[in-house]
Amino acid sequence: MTDNIVKPLLAWYDQNKRILPWREDRNPYRIWVSEIMLQQTRVEAVRPYYDRFLAELPDVKSLASAQEEHLLKLWEGLGYYNRVKNMQKAAKVIMETYGGQMPGEYDLLLQLPGIGAYTAGAIASIAYDKKVVAVDGNVLRIITRLTADPSDILSEKFKKQIQQELLQVVPKDRPGDFNQALMELGATVCLPNGAPKCQACPWHDMCMARQQGRLDEIPYKKKSKARSVEKKTVLLLRDGERTLIHRRPDKGLLAGLFEFPNYEGWLSEEQILEKVQALGYTALYAKELEPAVHIFSHKEWHMKGWLVKVEETGFSDAREEADGYHLVTSGTIQSQYPIPSAFRAYTPYVDVALGNDRFLM
Q1: d(CA 241, CA 329)
Q2: CA distance 41 to 58
Q3: CB neighbour burial string for 195-228, b if at least 16 within 10 angstroms, e if fewer
Q4: Which whole number is the average pLDDT over 58-78?
Q5: How far apart are CA 86 and CA 255, in angstroms?
C-alpha cells in the first residue's frame, strides 16, 4: 500500500461526504456517541437516536449521572445494550480522572471501558487531529479489495497488519478526514456482498480485486460457528389495560432490560395456565399468537406467544411484585421501561411501540 491512495480519496470525500449531525463540529463527546451508536447499526437508524440521546444527555457529566433505566430506554431498539452501559462506565471514569473532558491521546482513550482501537482512533483523529487510524469492517473490506488480499478479515493479526500499513500513509494534516473518508467509501461505494459501485470509486483504476474479477470472493471471512437455537414461550398477560413485565437479571443477555414473562420450550395451553396460576393470576382465556424469531449474534430465539386475559386484580399501576415483576399500563411501559427488540413481534398486542417507532405513531 502506498500513499498514492490518499489524494484521490480525500478529493472524493470532499465532494461526496454525507451531511451528518456528528460531523457538524469536532466535539469529542458527540463523536464518541455517534461512533458507539454506529457499531452494528446503519446511519439511517442512528440519526433519530443520536438527536434524542444528545437532547437528554448533552455531555459527559449528564451521561455519567443518568439513571440506568432511562439510559436503556434512550437506547431501546438499537440493540447491543452493553455499548451504552460501557459508555456510562467510561463517562464516570472521565469525570473522576479527567475532570469531565475526554482525553485526546489514543492510548488513554483505549483505557476507557467500551473503547477499542477503532473508536479510540476515530475520536483521537477526528476530534484531536492525532495521526492515528480507525479500522473497522468497512475499512478492511475496501483495503482487501484494493489490494486483492485473500486474508481472513476476522483475524486480529490481519487487522493489526492493516492498521500498521494505513498508519504509514495517513496524512498528518488531515488524519480525521482520511479516516472518515475510508469509512464513507466503505459505507456508500465499496459495498458488501459483491455489489460495489465501482464507477463512483476514487480507486477505480487501482483496485486489484476489480481488475482480477474477484469482488465476489473478497473480502474473505472464515465461516463462524452456527448460532444455537432456543425455543421460548412468551406470555402477554393482560389485567384489563395493564400488562405484566419482568426485569431481567443484572448480568447476561439483555441484562437489566424488561421482558414479557417467558419460559424455555414451547408450552402447551395447559402448561400456560399453570404458569399463570403460579404467577398469582386467574386466567379467563388464553389465545396462541403467531410464532416469531429473533436473531442475536450467537443465538436465535424461536418464540411462540400467548395472549392471556386474567381477572383484574385492582392493584395500583407500577405495583412491584416478587422477583422483579411489574403490572403496568401500556403507556407506562412505553415511557419508562426499556423492552428489547427481541419481543417486537408481540408488543402490538399490548399497544406498545418500541424504540424509534414510539416517535412515528
Answers
A1: 6
A2: 21
A3: ebeeeebbbeeebebbeeebbeebbeeeeeeeee
A4: 96
A5: 13
Q: What are 181's three cell numbers?
A: 473518508
Does the active-site annotation cover 270?
Answer: no
Q: What is the pLDDT of residue 318?
A: 46
pLDDT band of residue 219 (cuts 50, 70, 90) is very high
* 147: its cell numbers: 489490494
Q: Which helix (H) or strand (E) covers residue 20, if one does?
A: none
Distance of CA 153 to the CA centre of its chain: 21
pTM score, whole prediction? 0.90
| Cα 218 to Cα 151: distance, rounded to the nearest angstrom | 9
Q: How far apart are CA 325 and CA 261, in angstroms?
A: 9
Confidence band of 356 (pLDDT split at 50, 70, 90)? confident
Q: What letter represents residue 24's amino acid?
A: E
| 3-state SS record for 86-103 | HHHHHHHHHHHHHCCCCC
Average pLDDT, whole number, for the chain? 93
**How many helices and strands in the chain, by DSSP H and E?**
14, 8
* pLDDT attached to residue 320: 55
Q: What is the pLDDT of residues 135-187, one digit of tens each?
A: 999 999 999 999 999 999 999 999 999 999 999 999 999 999 999 999 999 99
pLDDT attached to residue 315: 55
Catalytic residue from among 35, 76, 184, 259: 35
62 phi-psi bin (left φ>0, alpha ψ -120 to 50, beta other) = alpha
Mutual angle of helices 28-38 and 82-98, in 10-degree steps: 160
Pairing of strands 228-239, 299-310: parallel
Q: Which residues contact 321 (CB under 8 A, 6 or more apart)?
A: 280, 327
List domains and CATH numbers for the chain. 3-211 (1.10.340.30), 228-359 (3.90.79.10)
